[in-house]
Please model this.
Amino acid sequence: MSGSDDEAVQAPPPEERYAEELAFLKAWDPGPRPPRWQLTPRAVVHFVAGSRGEELALPGAAPKGVPKKLAIPEKFVGERALVERCVVTLAGERGLLLVGEPGTAKSMLSELLSAAISGTSARTVQGTAGTSEEHLRYGWNYAMLLARGPTREALVPSPVLAAMEVGGIARIEEVTRCLPEVQDALVSILSDRRLAVPELGDGGIVQAKQGFNVIATANLRDRGVSEMSAALKRRFNFETVPPIGELGREVDLVERQATSAVARVGVPLAVDRKVLEALVTAFRDLRAGRSKEGWAVDKPSTVMSTAEAVGVATSMGLQGAYFEVGADAALGLLPGYLLGVVLKDDPKDRGRLLAYWDGAVKRRAEQDETWKALHELRRVLEE
Ligand SMILES: Nc1ncnc2c1ncn2[C@@H]1O[C@H](COP(=O)(O)OP(=O)(O)O)[C@@H](O)[C@H]1O
Ligand SMILES: [Mg+2]
Model:
């Protein structure tokens, strides 16, 4: 077993990872696009939500290095209409605010949209309690400031200012974690579409170029959107990103992402589909507080997100590969990993997982071999 490429980096941004698809989609739809967009709105939606299995063909000759035909795989799993609404918002003059539970792919969606629209997802501010107005507006290169005074060259633009100057998308992650007065710096940027730099005198007003917009994300947990000022809320169109609706689509996604994660260390994913189905079903039951049969389930306080399910499937795949566990025996690893996800904040969550075992898992065990085997592993969950 060997790692693939020594030069490979972890988590390359979507504009690099999907460079071929983006170049293809640019040539595929040469139609009219909003100012400074790299792709048409229709092509952006195809990039994010996939071409529904259809192989797209270029209308004319293929530019160098671009394939003539390509099927675009789905990246964000969800309603296509949601992606369309996001794209329409970004073509207008209100910001886009993606809200939802942690791990519902808000950040991923925001990266994909900026990569497709502006060619980069890198103009990003990470909102934290320590984020200052400078992070959203501008700072100074102090050595240059002292040597030459406040000049354009001494100005260090924030990712937001940089996006205004080129007419691109800026991303603000977890905007509600910023202090309210810091959030308010965004109000004037989003409404006036300009930013004043008083230190530069009369020439110190940066007017946003056409194409500039902001995608912000906010979690419903911790400091939520309820703490956002009304003035700022009005500058955004809100889109709620829900957890994945259908079991089958969630299992497909978990399988796909875990497969590509273990492929990076050069092995196939040796976890049976049945095991992945049980894993995702358990996550969904505990997330919803209701089993797929409609039985009540005591919900743990932890977020049982798809992102966590991908993490568990990947760990099971890696453990299987490194320690030579067979695909069917991978089931034995599931309860331990599940407990690891559930047991984070509240010690009572162990009891909730045990109750799930004594309820839904036990009832299914009467009919189904996989659940029967899982039920027999109950002791792994005990203290
Ligand atoms: N609907 C979805 N479509 C595609 N991937 C998803 C989806 N929901 C969760 N994921 C997985 O979860 C990961 C983490 O999502 P992330 O964007 O960090 O979530 P958030 O910002 O909402 O907390 C994604 O990279 C992906 O692996
Ligand atoms: Mg996020």
